[in-house]
Amino acid sequence: MLRSCVMSSLPLIEPDTALFLDFDGTLADLAPRPELVQVEPELVGTLRALHTCLDGALAIISGRPVAELDGFLQPLRLPAAGVHGAELRHDGEALFMPPAPGITALMPRLEAFVARHPGLRIERKSVAVAIHYRQAPELEAQVRAMVADTLHDVDGLEGLPGKMVVEIKPAGVDKGGAIAAFMRMAPFEGRKPLFAGDDVTDEAGFVVARELGGVGVLVGERATAATVSVTGPAALRCWLHRSAHALLALRAQRGGKPQSVSSTSSETEDSL
Q: Do residues 26 and 236 lie in contact, with contact meaning Cβ atoms separated by under 8 Å?
C-alpha cells in the first residue's frame, strides 16, 4: 500500500508531537451521508502504532460524537473530542459532556423545516443537531437563514456552518478549545501540537496549534490559518502511514519493543 502513496513534502511526525486529527474529510473520505463513510483497512493499525510511538499523545478531534468515532475505529478507544469539543474523553473511559441547553425545544421546528425540503437531512447528536444539505446544495442559504432565525432569541446555543452542513451546538465550544484542553494534560503537555483537518470548522484548531508553537495541516485547498496543506484524505493517510513506519523504526533503534503497523497485539489494544 505504501508503494502507491504520493510522496508529500510535509515533514514526518516527530516523537515529541502531540497529534490531533479530524475524522471526516481528513482520516476518512467524505460520503453522501455520514453513516456511509468507510475507514481504510490500514488506518486502524497506523493509528494504533502512532498512539504507541507518541506515548499516547494522539487524539481525534471531530464533529461526530465520540461513540460514533469508536464505532468507526474499533477496537481503538483513543483520546477524543466529539461534537466540536462539547464531548471530551481523555483517559479512554470517562466522557465529559456539558448539557445541551434548549436543543430539544427546537427540534419540532427544525424537523418541520427539513420535512418540507426533500434532500435535507437532520442529525441529532448528543448535545447538538445538524442539518445536512449535501443532497440539496441549492438550499444552503435557506438552511443558514432558518438556523439563524431559530437561534435569534436562544441563549447558550450557536450555529456552526461546515461543509454542506449547519450545526446547532453549545455556544463557545470549538475544536481549538478542545486542543487547548488536551495540551494542558499529560501526555500532550509540553509537546508540539499538530492538527490536521479539512473543514472551516477546523480553523479554530489551526489557530490554537499555531499559538502553541505547532502546525496546522489543511486537507484540501482554500484560504486557511493552517501552516501547510496536503491534497486530500488519501495524501494525509499516506503521510500518517509513512510517519508510523518511521517512528516504529526509530523506536526499534532505541530499544523499544518492535511492532508492526498492522499489529493487533492485546498489549497495545489494552493500552487504548
A: yes
Q: So what's the pLDDT on residue 272?
A: 40
Q: Stretch 228-240: mean pLDDT, rounded?
A: 96
CA distance 245 to 1: 12
Burial class (CB in 10 A: 0-12, 13-18, 19+), 15: middle
Angle at 11 between CA 272 and CA 202, to 5 degrees: 65
Which grid cell sits at 70? 469508536
pLDDT score of 269 more than 70: no
**Cα gap 108→169, rounded to integer Å:** 16
- Domains, the chain, in order of start with CATH, read 15-96+173-270 (3.40.50.1000), 103-170 (3.30.70.1020)
CB of 197 closer than 8 Å to CB of 218: yes
Separation of alpha carbons 154 and 157, rounded Å: 7
Burial call 28-44: b when 16+ CB within 10 Å, e when fewer: bebeeebeebebeebbb
Q: Is the pLDDT of residue 2 over 60?
A: no
Are 27 and 43 in contact by the 8 Å Cβ rule? The answer is: yes
Q: Exposed, middle or buried by CB within 10 Å (0-12, 13-18, 19+), for 103?
A: buried
62: Cα separation from own chain's centroid: 3
What does the block give as the cell for 39? 475507514
Taking only Cα atoms into account, the Rg of the chain, rounded to an integer number of angstroms, comes to 19
Buried b / exposed e over 66-80, threshold 16 CB at 10 Å, is bebbbebbeebbbbb
Would you please indicate which residues are annotated as catalytic (active-site) residues? 22
